[in-house]
Every structure is written in C-alpha cells, then in structure tokens.
Write the structure tokens for this entry.
Amino acid sequence: MITVDKEKQTSYSVLSVDDDEEMIGLLHEVVSQLGHASVTAVDGVDALEKLGESEFDIIITDISMPRMDGIELTKRIKTDFEDIDVVVVTGYQEEYKYTDVIEIGASDFISKPFNINELEAKINRIIRERELRAELKRLSIRDGLTSLYNRRYFDENLEREAIRAFRQRYGLFLLLIDVDNFKEYNDQLGHQKGDDLLKELARLMMFYSRDNVDTVYRYGGDEFAVIIPHAKHEQAMLVAKRLRNKFNKSNLGPASLSIGMAQLEGELKTLEQDLETLLRTADQHLYSAKNNGGDQICTANQDFNLENPLLNKSEIQ
C-alpha cells in the first residue's frame, strides 16, 4: 500500500497515460490516494479519445508508447486543450531532457524510476499554480465593489455568446441598466450609501437573472448590463421587469432604474457589425427610457413604465 500526504481538499481530474500495466496501476493508486479523480489510458490515441469524452485538469504521460507517443500527445494537448497541465514521464535511456518537454508545452518532467514523494510534490505544485492562475483570472474579470463581472469581461463574453447564439440559432438579448438620480442619491446620503446601493443592485441582478444562463456585469459607474441567451423576447422582458420592480420595492428612492433592451440580429459573418448594432440599439433604448423620465424599460417593441406585480424567479426558468 502506497501512503501519500493528502493535504488538498479540492479534487482535480487526472488522466494518466502509459502502456506499462504496472506503471499505470501505480499512477492510478497515487492519484487516487491524493484525493483526485483518476482515469487511465494506454497510449496517446486512447488519451485523446478520453479527452473528447471528459474534462481533465492534469495529464501525466509517458513518452514511449505505441500509436502516439507522449511528445506528440503533449503537442496535441497544448494546441487543443491549452488549460490542461501536462507532466511528462521518461526513462533514463531516452534522449529527451527537461528543456525539451517544457519547450513543447509540458508543465513538468519526471524521470523513471521516480520517487512517489517527488510525483506528489510535482502534482501539488501544479495544483497551487492552477489555483493561483484561477484567482488572478477571477480578479481580472471582476468588479472590485460589486463582485460582478467587469466591462473587460463583458466585451470578451458578449462576442462568445453571440457566436454560440448564431451557430445554435437561439435568441440573445442585452439589457443596459442605469441608476436614475444616482448623483442626487449620493449628494443626499453620501458616497458610502451610494456604494451600498450599487452593491444591492448587483445582488438583485444576480438573484433575478437565470442561474448558470444569464451573466451580469458592472458596465461602468452606475451602469450595469445583463446578457440573456437562450431566450425569447418575453423571457428577457421578465428578467428586466422583475429586476426593476424589486429595486423599486427596496426603499432606495429617489433612485430608480432605466433599462434599455435589444436583441442580437444578423448573421455570423457580420459579427462585429451586428455586435455594434446590438450595443448601439440597447444604448439608444436606455437613453429613451431616461429621456422619458426614467423608471422604465424601453425596447424596440414597446416601453414599459407601469408598475407590475413582482414575478417569482421560477417563472423564467
């Protein structure tokens, strides 16, 4: 029985690749005892098939294997699955050096026969670096005050969502939201209360949008945005109406919300132009909502400025 120090609580998915039955059994046991999900493959071709079926965080691969060796496998992984970390394992008799495998994209290198503690240390180092990268990415795409996604991520994600919407032929809507009378609110109650209002609006946006479907953003200052994919006009309007209604019931006067809504239209080959049109249309509708007195939702079809009963979250699921 192999004993390892299971110091990590987070479980990762590890694919071990080797044509040696004894070695693959050893790798499987070590990875499992570290508390991670362990899957094995007998060579590079088998590994790529498994990569097409499941997601993996780390791959430990031998170099010398039939059909596809570890060098070619590593190159394919770094081309098609760039977020996966690769540890290359090689025997002393093979000509490959540490610098060779790092240059093709591997995260680390270990020689046979290896020490179990050495392998554990390399896996744990890779995990620490993955978690650091994930945290840095999280911080780079989040707004510091509200913890919503920021404008930078909005620009990146809107294009991705638009491409998916065109390819899969579903509706994509954009809400641009502005806080009416925000300057007056700050002047009356102070900037701390103004920050509290923005954080409360962010909380409402998270709660009254669809979990794991819609994405919400701080667009800048007191402007916010919601990207609503997989939706029809009525569904997108439900998100806007219940957000506005709930905000009005939160005793945050004289502040209210103006919302401009637009739908993505066009075709994939004119993506850049279509995104510009989407943003411009949503912004024009937002301007119309504010110019008409605020506290309303403006779309291409009609303006909504009447009080509506608060809708349950389940009505848009």
